Amino acid sequence: MGFYKKVVFLFIFTFLSYSIKSRAQQQFQYNYETWWGVMTSVRVSEKWSVWNDAHFVDETFFIYRTGLTYHNKRDNLVTTAGYSWLRLTTPLSEGRLIRTEHRPWMQTTFRVPSTKKLSTSFRFRYDARFIQNLESGQLAEGFSFNHRWRFNNALRYRWGNVLSSNTVLSTSLLNEALFRTGSGPNGVRHEHRTHLLMGLSKGPITYSVGYIVRYINISPERARLNHGMVFWMTINLNTFKKKTTEFVEFPEDHVN
């Protein structure tokens, strides 16, 4: 268990490092949001699976994302690449999602060898963001471009079977740091997200309910703290019948 104690310590250290305010003088704006998501993964061969998901936060964004996932031989390291289409709100749209974003993306997830109860994973994702321009808060012609780099650590505890022999209860704690680079004016330089989720898995479907807190660093003087409920459904399907797959997509692998 010494190895897992080190992993948990690293997880907690990462959480504390990014959760502390970067500027003591920052003024905070607090917003409540509700996050809905449907996420699917379909295994089509020993090495490949197809990824689709959609997320919606009222008066904030809608995203549809698709991709193709490559699985290594041990099935503990997977890489996905694909494309996302988004609709975003603007400062003057009164919550309507009228702004378009195109987002090619890729990610790699490493699932650390786990015990029967405890598992952890590390994920790196890159987003290439083409976001519709604004002028004086109104939509304008053209798109600006920037990069977003995302580092995610997820810790999952499996409580065991409840209700029936094939129904599993679990708890997941997720922390993700997001950084923007590039000359494009859109987006914030730094964001940190923390999720706490309870999951109920039955067969290929996992229902997750939890809470999210998002620290959004707007400027050295201002920051937003968005928080609210999360309702997700994750579906894992396997059309590859020759082998039982080792890698099961958890909700934390699909965090937007």
Give me the side-by-side strand order of the main sheet: 2-3-4-5-6-7-8-9-10-11-12
Tell the overall outline: globular
Total strands: the figure is 12
Task: Round the mean pLDDT to the nearest integer and report it.
Answer: 86
Give the radius of gyration. 19 Å
Strand content: over 45%
Structural class: mainly beta
Spans of 5+ residues with little confidence (pLDDT < 50)? none
Helix-strand sequence: HEEEEEEEEEEEE
Main beta sheet: 11 strands, mixed, barrel
Helix fraction by DSSP (H/I, runs of at least 4): under 10%
How widely separated are the two ends?
31 Å
Number of DSSP helical runs: 1
3D structure, described in words:
- It contains 1 helix and 12 strands.
- The chain has one helix at residues 2-19, and strands at residues 27-32, 35-43, 48-57, 61-71, 77-88, 99-111, 118-135, 138-161, 167-181, 190-202, 205-217, 222-238.
- Strands 2-3-4-5-6-7-8-9-10-11-12 form an 11-stranded mixed beta barrel.
Please render the helix and strand layout as text.
Elements: H1 2-19, E1 27-32, E2 35-43, E3 48-57, E4 61-71, E5 77-88, E6 99-111, E7 118-135, E8 138-161, E9 167-181, E10 190-202, E11 205-217, E12 222-238
Parallel strand pairs: 1-12, 2-12
Antiparallel strand pairs: 2-3, 3-4, 4-5, 5-6, 6-7, 7-8, 8-9, 9-10, 10-11, 11-12
Nutshell version of this structure?
The protein has 256 residues and is mainly beta.
